[in-house]
Amino acid sequence: MKRIAILASGAGNNARNIINHFKGNNDVRIVLIASNKSDAGVLDIAKEHSIETCLLNHENFYSSDQFLQLLLSRNVNFIVLAGFLKKVPENLIKAFPHAIVNIHPALLPAYGGKGMYGHHVHEAVHDHREKESGITIHFVNEHYDEGQIIFQAKTVIETSDTPLDIERKVRALEMEYFPTVIEKILREN
Known about the structure:
Blueprint: E1 2-7, H1 13-22, E2 28-35, H2 41-48, E3 52-55, H3 58-61, H4 66-73, E4 78-81, H5 90-95, E5 100-104, H6 118-127, E6 132-139, E7 149-156, H7 163-188
Parallel strand pairs: 1-2, 1-4, 2-3, 4-5
Antiparallel strand pairs: 5-6, 6-7
């Protein structure tokens, strides 16, 4: 049984998509959703699906092993970052080698790193007049967006596309591919 924790900072669109994808799958269970923001929509999604939640703060996430111990006590063996805007602490990376994945809204290594998330990425892609953008799903290491790339999908950027148009195209790729790539990783591990 694969027991997944999802970490997210925002509305939770990817989290909802992942939950729905694995609904009815007896081999995979989402057992915890954690957020660093008390007003994040993802926490409401967790409640809708009766999934345990955890609010992350500096003390329980960075200054102690408290969150790690919670994960271990829930027998979590895989972590998904779904729009999580904080750097993952080293204790989690060591405890879950090749078992933490992130989705990034660009074709890494381009447009990655600290501060490159959401609309910032799409505006940068637009400002540089890129011909394509996409998503990157990668394992998490100790550096922002530098872990081993697992999967990428591309979309064409038209000269008339605004940053919002780019965001919509990239979001469609996230919805299409993120759950199935997670499922593939879980089958192979």
